[in-house]
Design a protein that fits this description.
The structure is a homodimer. By secondary structure, chain A is of the alpha+beta class. Chain A has nine helices and 14 strands. The longest helix of chain A has 18 residues. Chains A, B: Belongs to the HypE family.
Chain lengths: 373, 373
């Protein structure tokens, strides 16, 4: 049994050496999460890539599938198989508390995964549901969460097609965690991915930011922020379909700014596209209650999670048409242009401030809002 | 905020009323798990089925997809989309300990999901990986698990295509949990599902049973069972492909006997097929170390999990050809016929004992081997 947990052959990658152990920030969706993906998961998972290529099964994936490496572990992957393009994504949900103003872990688990598919331009088809339940969880809580998932899936027109249930001993979970994975169909011609963002693109935000994060914090910390705030949790594939109806080639990149907020979404797309991003801070729709709560808590609204918003990178010539299509859709009626993509300062996101200056916008390190989704 | 965790509208379904709270047995894969699926998840998830049908997105799923209801929440679903048939499945892995003789949670997470696809006759294409990590987990442990997943996926010729990482506070997980979901392609003509088992079918077990469960228990309880026992964890899609190469129509139903063991697999297929199962107890290959450990622990080997075996229901006329194909494959070299399907006693599984009598074989209630996978 010397093979049990034999760690001698595993060397901690240099960029991860500051942390010999997992910290909450590794799950924050920011820099630490990226480092874990880049330096731990991708090398481990890629170890057998060449082997897989030799296997007859791999031949079923069309050559174009190699392009899905762009999405590995970060977004929905797109697999070309049997003449269709399949989007495939996964997310686990560990939000605390399970119920919050405007929704629950059930709606999040459906909307979050639907939105990951939508941000590749895919029409969501089916979701899986994998539950990890804590011994002692009230059945009524599980029943409510399952109902929320059923209703959210029905409203989104997506089927909960397969599932799994595990139970762990009391104290080894926090009520329940749920994973949803999703498959969707990418319509012909649609090619939406972070690295298609290009200089000249206009950047559109679909609505007010930060409401989900502040709604969850309000109940978690028992705080009142001088206003009602509800999670913005919503499925966005209908909005995306409306945008693609306006123009297929003009929609270059989409991202739903969840963990790490709008700042992280902009930074990730800037990095993937090898281009700069510039936006006007005052153009970003921040509801007063989010502004107030962020002031109180010392948070930057640009770092606070949304669960029903997207940021779109659209060809300049198509911006008016896409914006009009978004505003005609309930999920995008407050859509606004906040900035554009530039050939300068590739990979860097710059905000123009109210005082006429500029500041560099970065991703949070990771730990500021644990378990927000 | 009256909507937060408002449980007044949720009524506990009658069959679940013995348990107002989740018990470990709800995750055991036996009767309690089935009850939770049937009475809690399926009604909640089906609540919006008709709505989904009206949504244009649902039209992308071919009508044949309705047949996948047989697999809802229990096995891989098969979705007909764009002229191909896609198998889709999910499993969360919470095995304790993370490393055991013959493997780790990493191999299990790849093999288990590959095998769920294979048991619908599908060629596995891609897996997702969703991690829930406990704050304080050693990076080296995570690194080892990720490497195990990478190697297992490479050996199986399947790609780890997309992923997600969440972190929860110290004490709210047990090191790490991982969910893998999988998509696969069902080849033309292949139609493998529990309800295709039919009277006259021969029942084949692919190899010795119970090694995974006993291997995990041996390290968990620090027991020695008078022999070396290693998990049988293995990918079975190669074996299934060999069986289908012998005959496509003759392979009626497949199941990998994981949680709940061979007994549960037989009972579930008998129930789905509305047919009886009869088998000879002495024909089931039980390794001496499994026999000894079960005697010591008071377990029935038929209830102990395998992670690299399958049970096949094959048309009588094709049995010899399928058996020969299995024995020619490394994963099936010890395959044996253990019994047959009968029109009598539908839904009931009967074992012929060594003493010439018979006994009814049932599923475990659920709690005897928690967290075995």
């Amino acid at each position: 049994m010397t093979d049990l947990a034999d760690m001698t052959g595993w060397a901690c990658p240099t960029p991860l050496r500051d942390h010999q152990r997992i910290v909450l920030g590794h799950g924050g969706g920011g820099v630490l999460t990226s480092e874990l993906i880049e330096h731990l998961f991708l090398p481990a998972f890629a170890a057998g890539g060449s082997t897989a290529r030799r296997d007859p099964a791999a031949a079923l994936l069309d050559a174009a599938s190699a392009a899905s490496a762009d999405a590995a572990l970060a977004d929905a992957a797109v697999l070309a198989v049997g003449g269709i393009r399949l989007a495939f994504t996964t997310d686990s949900y560990v939000v605390r508390p399970l119920f919050f103003p405007g929704g629950s872990i059930g709606e999040l688990a459906v909307h979050g995964t639907v939105n990951d598919l939508a941000c590749r331009g895919a029409v969501p088809l089916a979701l899986s549901a994998g539950f990890i339940l804590e011994e002692g969880l009230e059945l009524a809580v599980l029943g409510r969460v399952a109902q929320a998932m059923g209703h959210a899936a029905a409203a989104a027109g997506v089927r909960l097609a397969t599932g799994d249930t595990k139970v762990v001993e009391r104290g080894l979970a926090d009520g329940l965690y749920v994973n949803t994975s999703g498959v969707g169909l990418v319509p012909p011609g649609v090619d939406v991915r972070p690295d298609r963002a290009a200089p000249g693109d206009r950047i559109i935000v679909s609505g007010p930011i930060g409401e989900h994060g502040i709604a969850v914090l309000s109940v978690r910390e028992g705080l009142e922020f001088g206003g009602d705030v509800r999670s913005d949790t919503a499925a966005l594939h209908g909005l995306v379909a409306a945008m693609l109806a306006a123009t297929i080639p003009g929609v270059h990149a989409l991202r739903d700014p969840t963990r790490g907020g709008l700042a992280t979404a902009l930074c990730e797309i800037a990095a993937a596209a090898g281009a700069g991003v510039e936006f006007t801070e005052s153009a970003v729709p921040v509801p007063p209650v989010v502004e107030a709560a962020c002031g109180f808590l010392g948070l930057d609204p640009l770092h606070v999670a949304c669960e029903g918003r997207l940021v779109a990178f659209v060809a300049e010539a198509d911006t008016d048409a896409v914006l009009a299509a978004m505003r005609a859709h309930p999920a995008g009626r407050d859509a606004v242009v906040i900035g554009s993509v530039t050939a300068e300062h590739p990979g860097v996101v710059v905000a123009r401030t109210a005082f006429g200056g500029t500041r560099i916008v970065d991703r949070p390190l990771g730990e500021q809002l644990p378990r927000i989704c």
